[in-house]
Amino acid sequence: MSESTSSTLQYRFDGPEEAPVLILGPSLGTTWHMFDRQVPELVKQWRVLRFDLPGHGGAPAHPAGSVAELATRLLATLDSLGVQRFGYAGCALGGAVGIELALRHPERLASLALVAASPRFGTPDEFRQRGVIVRTNGLDPIARSAPDRWFTGGFAAAQPAITEWAVQMVRTTDPGCYIAACEALAAFDVRAELGRIGVPTLVLVGSEDQVTGPAEARTLVAGIPDARLAVVPGASHLVPVEQPAAVTDLLVRHFSTAWQQPFDTGQTALPAATAPVTAPAAPAPVAMPTAAPAAPPRTAPVAEIAAAAVPPRPVAPPDRYETGLKIRREVLGDAHVEGVLARADEFSGDFEELVTRYAWGEVWDRPGLDRKSRSCVTLTALAAGGHLEDLAVHTRAALRNGLTPQEIKEVLLQAAVYCGVPAAGSAFRVAQQVIREETTPAE
């Protein structure tokens, strides 16, 4: 096991040093223990590296705000170990990391498996709203609802120990890192890029997954040129936990038969990790309560010629309207922006374009202030001007931008001194209602 830094990830190795390296990436709110039941069979052919997301499983709390940053930290970890080429299987957010590797670093990837993954996870609003809930209430509401999202009802009822393990796994996650991971998923959208993935890919999904189900899996298979689909009956989102034997068998078969070699080498095994590893100082993470039967052994990976790396695309100068539309959606939410644009007509359309291009594409995109600071300024100005409808919209935006209800209260108290008590009183009533709506967990 290892101790991570702000530029690397906490990891552990299992299996023989001379074997090819196979990496297993966890989902949001879980730890590397979600793959405990796959490891005994996988280590018969591969050296398995499992990693924890920042702030998960006792890993140091160094938040990563994008999937690209998580992939960069993983590659930095592998570089420090001398691992150049590897197979990769990831679940949900871990699957997004695998897609990022396949798109940006295809020369490193020998084979890919995407478990409960999607080219776009829900909507940005959903994950930013989850961040608001965690920032206000902590992780307990998310932890209590995790079994409903992760497991079928029958499994949760029959396996109370594993259900409780899932709840505790979320509760022990660092809230700041969880929120950052939500932001990473909110910004992740590779639907237009799937055709550039050149590595053999297995797309694996539980038939009962209500989070990233068979529809999302079929989107991946339709977009990735060399992909095949495996639907596991009787499983929900954490399919490696709920149906461990089936997942193990599918992973062994895929990585045994679809393992591309680099174009310029005929080696059949990957470099072994040689750097020393040390035990982490972090507390011991919550481990899987029980083990599963091992899958039957399979043959060693077959070498093939890998696809050539895709050259980088030229970067076009930013379009201020498109930049503004993106920021406007991120700050105010897709639903609000879609409603505003849908109501625009020949009379008001030019005004909405002006607001999008200059307010959002110019001012909100300037580097001088972060979004939290801009929200503070905006709330003060709207309270002073008595623009209560816009104040409600920007109170929601402030919560999404990272302000807590306590911080919003301080902004409005400051406004009461400098803008007037009546203006601030009206602002408090509007903000109070919005905060109640936005921070109350769904039943």
Summarize the structure.
By secondary structure, this protein is an alpha/beta fold. It is 49% helix and 10% strand.
Can you walk through the features of this model?
49% of the residues lie in helices and 10% in strands. The protein contains 18 helices and nine strands. It has a seven-stranded mixed sheet, with helices on both faces. It has a two-stranded parallel ribbon with strand order 8-9. Helix 1 links the parallel strand 2 and strand 3 (47-51). Helix 15 packs antiparallel against helix 16 (388-400). The longest helix is centred in the C-terminal third of the chain and has 19 residues, at 421-439. The two termini are 39 Å apart. The model is unreliable at 265-283 and 291-311 (pLDDT under 50).
Task: Please describe the structure with a list of short key phrases separated by commas or semicolons.
49% helix, single chain, 9 strands, 10% strand, alpha/beta, two-stranded parallel ribbon, seven-stranded mixed sheet, globular, 443 residues, 18 helices
Sheet/helix structural class: alpha/beta
Number of helices: 18
**Radius of gyration, rounded?**
24 Å
Q: What is the strand tally?
A: 9
| Uncertain regions spanning at least 5 consecutive residues | 265-283, 291-311
Q: What order do the helices and strands follow?
A: EEHEHEHEHHHHHEHEHHEEHHHHHHH
Mean pLDDT across every amino acid position = 88
End-to-end Cα distance: 39 Å
Helix fraction bin: 40-55%
Shape: globular
Beta percentage is 5-15%
Strand order of the largest sheet: 1-3-2-4-5-6-7
| Main beta-sheet strand count, sense and barrel state | 7 strands, mixed
